[in-house]
From TrEMBL:
The keyword GTP-binding does not apply. Pfam families: Pkinase (PF00069). This is Protein kinase domain-containing protein. It comes from the Eukaryota. ATP binds at residue 194. The keyword Phosphoprotein applies. It comes from Paramecium pentaurelia.
Amino acid sequence: MIIKYNQLNDLKKNKSASNNSELQKYFKEKILIESFNEETRQIIQSQQLLFKNKNIISPKAIQKTSESQMDELQNKSTIQIVFQHEEKLHNFLFAYEATTDQLLQQARKIVPTISAVVTTNSNLAIDYYLQLQNQKLSVFQGRIITVQGVPGLLALKSKTGLRDFIFIKCIGVGGFSRVYLVKKKQSSRFYAMKIIDKKIIIEKKIENIIENERNILAVTQHPFLNKLEYALECPNHLIFITEFCAGGDLLYYLQKYHVFTETQARFYIVEFILGLIYLHQLDIIYRDIKPENILIDITGHIQIADFGLAKPTRNEYAYSFCGSPEYMAPEMLTNQGHNQQLDHYCLGVLLYELVVGQPPFYSEDINKIYENIILKEVEFPKNNTLSNEIKDLIIRLLDKDQKSRIGHQGGLLEILDHKWFENVDLIKFLYRKVTPPFQPDIFKPPALLKEYKDGDLDLIRRLLDRNVQGTTMFQNFYYDQSVELDIRLEQQKFLKFYHQLIEQQNSKMQRRQKIKFMRKSRLV
């Protein structure tokens, strides 16, 4: 029910309303009340202010039962957002648990044709957050933000191209690529756009690596894997457009806090393992485990990114020499051939770095790193406070013989059977129900703090120039996740199988915990 400002005079005439100073103050603020549930409406009806419209924003009851608590309800349990359309301001009150989806739905009641809502002052961080699906509006509690609608645009062509995006800023520079934060004009959704120069691809002879990355990204779909939305081929560049993770990467947090506690490290390792199990079940070796490839989304959960070194393989061994020196496994350095056990080793390196602060065999001399990996046994800093369980797990993951390394028989599920994961509930992790150790600041997200400007304007100009000539490198490079229905169906089928696998492993772990608890109870 919308109570318009010009109705206030009528309300003032109502005796019961005028006798209640709290209600007078409440309505004089010109608030359009649209988020009350049945219980709250009954409170207002007791003041003879009848609400005829039954629209409900919040699915849960706002637990307030007395007139004297109305101000508290407004200040502590509701979120105020102002929607501006033309010259009118519409004030919305949302219950604490309301979401961004519900904000858009409410705005569409006023302007049905809008595709999104954005801030009137173009706040990049908030605009990004508002485009995410089903995110809590409670982050805005104590703030009043003003938003406006983005006119819906009709899709007049079959393929998405570069001109469908607005370039915002460069957020990353790699050896042969640049990464831009972009916004799609039609939806106002934000993405990360990785731009790779074809000249460098040819010079470095990495055509197979780029094509392989595109194909792996196209067939994978998992909550802990960075999602490919579009792949484009331009005259002189190849483009990957993926989910944008505003939380930065794990390296950012490792540099900020230096070392993690075992509990903090366990959170990231479990989420990473769940993503890695998915890849291994698809017979894909990741081969590029390191903190900077573990992105953090705005909610604090991980997304594994950069599949340039990933390799589809079944039972055969791979012999490529690739990866970061500190994370290379002994079998890669000795050219013995490697399989999924290589990822197990690198997982041990990652875990060690998270709780110690640097990789286990680190040296400023790369050759010394290689020598240490092959010959030196892992050591822990003196006076460390690490548990025996995590030390044992790291030692077994860093076993130089891949045939005796933990996981050589049962894969990553065997690793999850280790005592260090004893109290882990995999289902809670999989459904992102475990609270992350670090929560990115949505108003100053780490991924938006950096900007690289050198060469930006020239590159964007060349990308958008219709007269630029070039050659086609791949026949079927184009990809649009929204129209690849066959691929999405296969992804869903495999994801269902994957969930069953994780549920079985979780049940096994829970039974083990229960048996251990019962044994302890008997001893007591």
